[in-house]
Design a protein that fits this description.
Elements (H helix, E strand, L loop, with lengths): L11 E6 L10 H6 L6 E7 L3 H13 L3 E5 L11 H11 L4 E10 L7 H18 L3 E6 L2 H12 L5 E3 L6 H9 L3 E4 L9 H9 L5 E3 L21 H12 L3 H16 L9
Parallel strand pairs: 1-2, 2-3, 3-4, 4-5, 5-6, 6-7, 7-8
Bound molecules: zinc ion.
Zinc ion binds next to loops.
């Protein structure tokens, strides 16, 4: 059972969701229809390749509370062609697209060769620069390389978020110094993740975004279940606890951070 909210005025934002994935095929419309009931003001729905980018865009065009990010995940760049980048740029111009992502480096699974991952990371940063939109960055076991690329190719013209941040404090500092945010999700609630909690304690709240990465990374106490945008409040509650601040106040700041980064207005509408 999901606990009742202590403060009914609380509203949340999930800055990283994958509702287009097959895990939501049975009840996608219901999950979205419940955003209002679940106090989800808006969700950023994130593509991982060209085909899913088309689908996230369609979802966002149909739903007021969904915005989209289009991009090719480092896992998938091995099948990418330069024509695909033209397609991506065209999709990126849509006004419901608030970011280019998720893009980045994954040297943990290495599903695409590292040199190709770096090449297409840079090329997609260039698209964001051209479109004047922020980036949503995926990094796993490649913080040195990712920070170097962001420093050389994004900073200071392109900002964004390193989603589901999993680096150390030194990486976190370097990232926020470039004006980037850290996306914090379910892992901050995991029993063995004191390292991430310590980083959240130390980094100013203005650099933090709330996210789920659903259907993955479900927060405690729902681990093992499919993740959903409504579980983002367990992340926000944990961040509030770590900061020693009221949940309502922290939720407001996290909302403001997302609105500012993605250029939305207070109602979750495009500015
Ligand atoms: Zn993701």
């Amino acid at each position: 059972m999901v606990r009742k909210l202590e403060n009914p005025k609380c509203e949340f934002v999930d800055t990283h969701a994958h509702l287009h994935m097959r895990q939501f095929d049975q009840d996608r419309e219901d999950v979205i229809a419940n955003f209002e009931r679940d106090h989800i003001r808006f969700v950023v729905e994130v593509g991982v390749d060209i085909e899913s980018s088309l689908r996230v865009l369609k979802l966002s065009e149909k739903n007021e509370r969904i915005f989209s990010a289009v991009g090719v995940h480092p896992h998938d760049v091995k099948i990418l062609k330069d024509e695909d980048l033209e397609k991506l740029e065209e999709l990126g111009r849509n006004e419901k697209v608030v970011a280019i992502g998720e893009i980045g480096l994954d040297f943990y699974r290495n599903l695409s060769p590292r040199d190709l991952q770096e090449e297409y990371f840079v090329k997609q940063i260039e698209i964001a620069k051209k479109l004047g939109k922020p980036i949503i960055v995926h990094v796993r076991d490649a913080y040195e390389e990712a920070v170097r690329i962001l420093r050389n190719h994004a900073h200071p013209n392109v900002i964004g978020v390193v989603h589901s941040f999993s680096g150390d404090y030194k990486d976190a500092k370097r990232i926020v110094e470039m004006g980037f945010k850290l996306g914090i999700g379910g892992p901050v609630t995991f029993k063995n993740n004191e390292k991430l909690r310590e980083i959240v304690r130390k980094i100013d709240l203005k650099y933090i975004l709330s996210e789920t990465d659903c259907p993955y990374l479900t927060p405690h106490p729902f681990r093992g279940k499919r993740n959903e945008p409504r579980f983002v409040r367990y992340v926000v509650e944990k961040i509030a606890l770590l900061k020693g601040k009221p949940v309502l106040k922290v939720a407001e700041i996290l909302m403001e951070n997302a609105i500012e980064l993605f250029g939305l207005d207070g109602a979750g509408m495009k500015r």
